[in-house]
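User: Can you fold this complex?
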Amino acid sequence: MTRPTIHDVARVAGVSLSTVDRVLNDREGVRDKTRSRVLDAIGDLGFERNLAAANLSRGRRYRLCFILPDGQNSFMRALEQDVAEEAAAALRDFTVIETRKVPAFDAGALADLLRSLDPEAVDGVALVATDATVVRIAVRELRARGIAVVTLVSDLPGSEKQGFVGIDNVQAGRTAGSLLGRFCRGRAGRIAMVCGSMLVRDHAERRLGFEQVLRTEFPEQSLIAPIEGLDDKDRVRNQLAEKLAADPGIVGVYSMGAGNRGVAEALAALQPERHVSVVVHELTRYSREALLDGSFDAVLHQNSRSEVQGAIQLLRNLLDGQNPPPQVEPIRVEIYMRDNLP
Amino acid sequence: MTRPTIHDVARVAGVSLSTVDRVLNDREGVRDKTRSRVLDAIGDLGFERNLAAANLSRGRRYRLCFILPDGQNSFMRALEQDVAEEAAAALRDFTVIETRKVPAFDAGALADLLRSLDPEAVDGVALVATDATVVRIAVRELRARGIAVVTLVSDLPGSEKQGFVGIDNVQAGRTAGSLLGRFCRGRAGRIAMVCGSMLVRDHAERRLGFEQVLRTEFPEQSLIAPIEGLDDKDRVRNQLAEKLAADPGIVGVYSMGAGNRGVAEALAALQPERHVSVVVHELTRYSREALLDGSFDAVLHQNSRSEVQGAIQLLRNLLDGQNPPPQVEPIRVEIYMRDNLP
DNA sequence: CAGGATTTGATAGACGTCTATCAAAATTCG
DNA sequence: CGAATTTTGATAGACGTCTATCAAATCCTG
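Assistant: Here's the predicted assembly.
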């Protein structure tokens, strides 16, 4: 009924507390035979070290650093806010979180920042990755210095990061295709796409998934080459409005990232009897309003709060050296419509 | 940089450790003037008691009891499984979880069980409520005995429960209506509904929300009185197949709860060229298969694992007397389609 | 102001683990 | 075999909080 302690382990193994401690904390000077007696006892008893007591004793603190892109991207700003709020809550668990910002899409700046991190001051890092070789190298160096590394929102495949917390963007694109295809069923025509930039990895992946589904499952719709909005709402509004006016056969719009406001404005300018189904990404103030007034049909979303929590938990588990690290729940592609808004 | 301790509080307040302790733990024999000096010091320093150390010291353990309905409902069985798994993980945090089962829909049995719970053995209870007055009374008595109570999945409004962890079922029904209405757009006709029993509160609420949306937003569709499946797949299959055969104008099906297998079978029997859009509840082995083979279009889901975790966290917070209790993330109505299956 | 009651302080030991130090025992080696 | 080395044990104090006990100080009452 009560959990076994190191005292029990010592008793069962027939050794002293000191020896148990040496084994538990990987100190040297223990003969193999003795070590295995202790490990056997641990196994027999099902002993698990009381982390709370251990951390209390050593005054353990987790010093984490979150690295986010700077700039006006509203998803990133929401993420920053979530980090700040979770940082306050994490203090209770002896976790100190520092936030650093680097210019968006600037791999060199990101790599420089990573290189500057001192293992004396930081135990673990969560970064929104920019996909570049210099960053991979910097991650490898961080790991070599003994700092734990996970990627957040945007992954860095092929690097030595120890985990990724974010959604599967191909899956997100497929989901969008599946929804929009169904919403437009019976109205064969064309579908317009809007992205931030095709140079951004997640948007490229979303497009890939979207086109996969549309082409195989809804061949009655054809796709128009995407508008690159570059996070500029006016640009998005103008280009989309132009396309919609020029082609009355456009029955659906998929917007893969920033630019929701521009999309909403272009739609508002249409004749009321024209029906265009719309699926966009990221629940923000604007996409929410558009859902409520009926101009958007669905919004795909990633819960940035969960992502931050997941990254913190994953880093702590890595630093605790838990074996195996208890899995963090994967982040889901969430679908919102007017009626299940949170 | 380091958190203040009770020693700091004592020093700043100019009192002894004993007095700080008396204030912190609500022991009597402290003059008001002294108490407020201590409270001021706590406020000034931003002191927060180190729960890990406190629990270590008192050998605190959280004894929770989860009460679930017995029977073949597959959602409830999945929930039971989740409770078992979370119970194992919770042991690490000195939380001992016991599961009890009562006959489904039997308010008397549930109330009896609640009455039998001994505050010497149980600190908190999470129950899947049956909506009845005897249960409300039993909950009140539990609270009077000092046991914390929250409802899980199925709420008990008007009772003295201290929280509810589950989804908003009216919202879920609205979401289903919104999806199915869009899926059937352009094909005006009739929509069939399937429920477990109209006596179950959550199904009744789902129907309410569903009809709200269909009637106001998609008046071109008309609704057929629901089939009551009573958790019997053959009954669901037969009745639904009969309706579909009799009425070629049925373009959509909404199934509010148990009975997914029967729905899938009735659909499989249709001529391949007939297209019926389908939205059901709860992601199970069967609804998952039907999504994958295209016979269901969307599945609404509540994450029972999150619900169990949420209930545990809420109960622990209540028992810790945290003030204000840190909010548990609300449970979302999740939408799954083939392409965002977890 | 004495006496009793109430409030406050001081101290010790506990919870489970960690770290450090020193002594004792066991092993290895010449 | 004795000395050097390695391995093990014993002990003490710490982390932040809790509980208990007893003594000292302060308060109230008549």
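Chain B has three domains: 6-49, 62-166+304-331, 169-301. The two ends of chain B are 41 Å apart (CA to CA).
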